[in-house]
């Protein structure tokens, strides 16, 4: 069967599949017979450098659970992580959680389709299983930030990165929660995003970590906080602050920042349109003033075009951006 389900999109969607039925069958057998937690991982990690190398190999193989196995000793032995190392941690957790979030959305679409009413109970049971798996991953990611990563961060950029990461995983948990549980995780996400935003004030407005934080924070306000006006205002303020200083950035940060600003612009287009539909006859939000123009930068840099529109909110959920994933 086929169905369409438009929810939140991400910057660079990375979908990983099974590594082969024989491997899966063998692993299930070994877990059942021998009680091995991770039978694939019998490779000792002697030094942080070995762990980092093996995590990079595992990333290339799209073995994200293995990445975390290799990285956990690194987090325990090593102090502050550099930019590449912290992105390895982020990529591992975000790919694992991203697969669960994608699965949950697919199951939600099926569950809500009257065509499959006779399978409702089975689908619901399956969805609950995915929810528990996602919550477990999010809990582990938050614990990694609290227990190791944030404690060892000495720079404002590092602190913003980890506080944003913590808030993101509270947000992902909130996507599959309701009632009191949703209220609790929403409060914690808001606190972490707010703390990250305060720390980010010491970073330049064009810094990709700062812009990436605002991107995800505004998505939280829109989707979890149900505050589209606040989301638009936050996203537009960040956009306006960053856009004029891009030409002064180094090439790597320029690419990252313009990519994130494009996502901010996409969200502003969508959200402003929805606000207009709900407020017929009222003046259009000011955010629309920036959405229908071309911006050109000197020194032969790539044109930043603001005419493309997106059908759904976007964030950095599974992006592999060097300094803001």
**General form:** globular
**Count of helical segments?**
10
Order of helices and strands: EHHHHHHHHHHEEE
| Beta-strand residue fraction | under 5%
**Helical residues, percent:** 55-70%
Descriptive report:
There is one protein chain. It is built from ten helices and four strands; from the N terminus they run βααααααααααβββ. The two termini are 34 Å apart. It has a two-stranded parallel ribbon with strand order 1-4. It has a two-stranded antiparallel ribbon with strand order 2-3. The model is unreliable at 1-39, 281-311 and 318-325 (pLDDT under 50). It has helices spanning 21-34, 48-60, 64-77, 83-111, 120-152, 156-175, 179-200, 208-223, 228-243, 251-278, and strands at 9-10, 294-295, 304-305, 314-315. Helix content is 63%, strand content 2%. It is globular, with a radius of gyration of 21 Å. It is mainly alpha-helical and 325 residues long. A hairpin with an 8-residue loop joins β2 (294-295) and β3.
What topology emerges from the helices and strands here?
Blueprint lengths: L8 E2 L10 H14 L13 H13 L3 H14 L5 H29 L8 H33 L3 H20 L3 H22 L7 H16 L4 H16 L7 H28 L15 E2 L8 E2 L8 E2 L10
Parallel strand pairs: 1-4
Antiparallel strand pairs: 2-3
Helix pairs in contact: 2-3, 2-4, 3-4, 4-5, 5-6, 6-7, 6-8, 7-8, 8-9, 8-10, 9-10
Brief write-up:
This protein has 325 residues and is mostly helical. Helix content is 63%, strand content 2%.
Which labels suit this protein?
single chain; 63% helix; two-stranded antiparallel sheet; two-stranded parallel ribbon; mainly alpha; 4 strands; 325 residues
């Amino acid at each position: 069967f086929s169905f369409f389900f438009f929810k939140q999109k991400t910057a660079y969607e990375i979908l990983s599949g099974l590594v082969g039925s024989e491997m899966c069958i063998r692993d299930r057998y070994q877990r059942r017979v021998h009680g091995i937690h991770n039978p694939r991982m019998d490779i000792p990690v002697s030094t942080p450098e070995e762990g980092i190398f093996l995590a990079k190999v595992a990333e290339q193989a799209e073995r994200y659970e293995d990445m975390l196995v290799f990285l956990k000793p690194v987090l325990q032995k090593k102090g502050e992580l550099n930019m590449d190392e912290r992105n390895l941690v982020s990529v591992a957790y975000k790919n694992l959680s991203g697969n669960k979030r994608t699965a949950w959305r697919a199951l939600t679409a099926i569950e809500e389709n009257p065509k499959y009413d006779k399978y409702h109970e089975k689908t619901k049971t399956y969805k609950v299983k995915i929810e528990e798996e996602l919550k477990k991953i999010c809990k582990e990611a938050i614990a990694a930030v609290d227990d190791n990563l944030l404690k060892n961060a000495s720079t404002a950029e590092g602190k913003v990165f980890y506080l944003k990461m913590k808030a993101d995983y509270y947000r992902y948990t909130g996507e599959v929660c309701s009632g009191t549980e949703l209220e609790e995780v929403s409060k914690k996400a808001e606190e972490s995003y707010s703390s990250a935003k305060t720390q980010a004030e010491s970073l330049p407005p064009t810094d990709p970590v700062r812009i990436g934080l605002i991107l995800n924070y505004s998505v939280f306000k829109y989707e979890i906080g149900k505050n589209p006006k606040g989301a638009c205002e936050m996203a537009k303020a960040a956009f306006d602050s960053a856009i004029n200083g891009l030409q002064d950035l180094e090439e790597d940060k320029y690419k990252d920042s313009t990519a994130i600003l494009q996502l901010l612009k996409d969200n502003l287009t969508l959200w402003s349109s929805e606000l207009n539909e709900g407020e017929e006859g009222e003046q259009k939000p000011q955010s629309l003033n920036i959405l229908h123009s071309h911006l050109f930068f000197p020194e032969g840099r790539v044109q930043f075009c603001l005419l493309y529109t997106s059908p759904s909110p976007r964030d950095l959920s599974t992006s592999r951006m060097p300094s803001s994933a």
